[in-house]
Amino acid sequence: MAQHAKLSASAAHRWMVCPGSVRLGKGLPDTTSEAAAAGTVAHDLAAWALATHNGALLNDEIGRVADQDGYDITIDAEMVDAVRLYVDTLAADKQPGDVDWVEVDLTTALQRIDESTGGTADHVRFRPAAKHLFVTDFKYGAGVLVNPEGNKQLRMYALGALLDAEGRGALVPTVTVRVVQPRVAH
Fold it and tell me: Beta-carbon neighbour count of residue 180 at 10 Å?
């Protein structure tokens, strides 16, 4: 399992509210669960579909078993349907001239603020015509709805995406954060 930044975007909900949790958690082992491993497999499948433009081939992945963090995760129709919804949502919003980045490591950009920060956004889209960034997070979890409004993880990704765009020479006045979470009723 990859080492998280001390102040990772995915844990921002904790360390922004309780800064002492960073020190208390130091030295504790990274742990995972079968559900988290399944989420990683779903994210990997989504990244592959987006990067290769092979969303049409997702059904071919049904039945494949992925070894993730010590768990054998079978890609089933539910996972493929969830990934397809995410891929289709992004495709429906795409406009001519848009530039997409998949699994964007924002650590270097975020470390301009603090060397302990880091994170990887699932998808960032730059729309040059509108000088607009869209940060979209794919949540595979079932059970708890993730609200994008005020979401600390997404705020970190938005900040990282802004800093990254600035580093590429683009000044962007507007960022929209979104969550695609197909396995939660809302």
Answer: 22
Nearest to 121 by CA among 57, 30, 46, 182: 46
DSSP β-ladder status, 117-118 and 120-127: unpaired
**How far is 170 from 38, CA to CA, in rounded Å?**
36
> Which tens digit of pLDDT belongs to each residue from 25-35?
777 777 789 99
Alpha carbon distance 110, 102 (integer Å): 17
Count the neighbouring beta carbons within 10 Å of the beta carbon of residue 120: 18
CA nearest 47: which of 124, 158, 147, 132? 124
Q: What integer pLDDT is reported at residue 7 of this predicted model?
A: 67
37: number of Cβ within 10 Å: 19
- Angstrom CA distances, 115 to 34, 46, 109, stand at 31, 29, 10
pTM here? 0.87
Q: How far is CA 155 from the centre of its chain?
A: 12
